[in-house]
Amino acid sequence: xxxxxxxxxxxxxxxxxxxxxxxxxxxxxxxxxxxxxxxxxxxxxxxxxxxxxxxxxxxxxxxxxxxxxxxxxxxxxxxxxxxxxxxxxxxxxxxxxxxxxxxxxxxxxxxxxxxxxxxxxxxxxxxxxxxxxxxxxxxxxxxxxxxxxxxxxxxxxxxxxxxxxxxxxxxxxxxxxxxxxxxxxxxxxxxxxxxxxxxxxxxxxxxxxxxxxxxxxxxxxxxxxxxxxxxxxxxxxxxxxxxxxxxxxxxxxxxxxxxxxxxxxxxxxxxxxxxxxxxxxx
Amino acid sequence: xxxxxxxxxxxxxxxxxxxxxxxxxxxxxxxxxxxxxxxxxxxxxxxxxxxxxxxxxxxxxxxxxxxxxxxxxxxxxxxxxxxxxxxxxxxxxxxxxxxxxxxxxxxxxxxxxxxxxxxxxxxxxxxxxxxxxxxxxxxxxxxxxxxxxxxxxxxxxxxxxxxxxxxxxxxxxxxxxxxxxxxxxxxxxxxxxxxxxxxxxxxxxxxxxxxxxxxxxxxxxxxxxxxxxxxxxxxxxxxxxxxxxxxxxxxxxxxxxxxxxxxxxxxxxxxxxxxxxxxxxxxxxxxxxxxxxxxxxxxxxxxx
Lengths: 282, 304
Description:
The structure holds two protein chains of two kinds. By secondary structure, chain A is mainly alpha-helical. Chain A has helices spanning 9-25, 28-46, 59-82, 87-92, 95-99, 105-171, 175-203, 210-222, 225-234, 257-281. Chain A is 76% helix and 0% strand. The longest helix of chain A is centred in the middle third of the chain and has 67 residues, at 105-171. Chain A starts with 8 loop residues before the first helix and ends with a helix. The mean pLDDT of chain A is 84. In chain B, strands 6-7-8-3-9-10 form a six-stranded mixed beta sheet, with helices on both faces. A four-stranded antiparallel beta sheet of chain B has the order 2-1-4-5, covered by helices on one side. In chain B, a hairpin with a 3-residue loop joins strand 12 and strand 13.
């Protein structure tokens, strides 16, 4: 039962379809879609109220506002969606039954991931897509293209955290520990990581870290999917670049969408790969 | 009927420092209804999981239906095997029929079997209800229907009657006997010894990972040479002292009596002489009950 040879797609598809149907049936997908749609609508329309105006104010600011919301929300939702993928089946007693089917452990894990990914992608596309129509109407096709990029990067962010959640789910002994670890991962990657980085940056006076310090900070930003997501979105928008302090230490040479996309893809593939490896060893 | 459905050869399983299964050799013939008994932690579940190919043995080899449960042929073996785990809980949001269709697809079985199977386990009326609304007994029935998907040649049933009421247990074993009549090999584990002793063709007793004994209940009783117990219901005015003297002469032991009953035990080798002595008592005895040692007695004898 090695990782890749003799892989069969039918059991993966069956597993994914069941997982997706289970989430749709529980109204989870609908609830998340509504939350996304309401937030996106509110931010697009009222986001500029602080500046004394309401109404659509321009794409860059809308996306920047959405990014600062999504960066908290999507990781949390993805972690909550995936943390019990395996440990939940184990606690329910159904994992042995699934594993007694003609399916390998890797296929089972991949099927679970794909089903959950679909359950996450549908409300993301649906909820934020609704606002896409408004943006195309107000801002034209170019705006829609940028907004499409925002949705795509949001999907990548969700999948990266889903992959981390599935890894937690494979490693955790029980559901309680899995949920605790998922929350801790969210706190660390979404809230604490940037604070630590900023603190270190301020403490070293930014430049005084010398050449190694200057080279190190951008790499450290790439080690966190939430930061990669932020970089992906702000570097496509000149007007909002300066809003983010950390972006100023990020060299343009690394702000290449292909590189950032590649790092994000690695954040999806690597945790899932480690999860499959550990799951196969169990 | 003589081909082995399951061959377990010198199988050992270690979990870190713990040896859960220790050098077990076991063969289950095709068409058998085989029982696996042992207390909690005896290694039953570990052995079950190894036979299903869920975990690999640390040493030794297991062949199921003539094939290795690992390696290239594993899908082929698993399509021919049905498994009912202990206390299985399904997915609350899926209905009974959806659950069954999901497992049919996973197994590569014919989905048109599903309705018939739900009918067979008495769940046809609840097919469209979410499993979250099912009682424990209904879930167990659904699990049994799931195990029968794809017409398996070999069934693994882990504590299959947990949570069932007596009537349902009776129905369950009737279904098991029907399957056996169809030629299905069945291996089941249970801690309710009295429940399986009437039903299995052979059984194995596991203790601390080691196989203590294998055989039919009858063979195990003989091997253990446990005493039988008898109860005589005495007629009014029966001469108790004379009766006791005659029975002890014939080999009866540990006599206990009150006005109406005389209880005693006897070794298997004295069974016939004691019965002859009882027959000679004629109308002083109203009735006689003979109790063979139960599987509990045999089990306790082996695990004590």
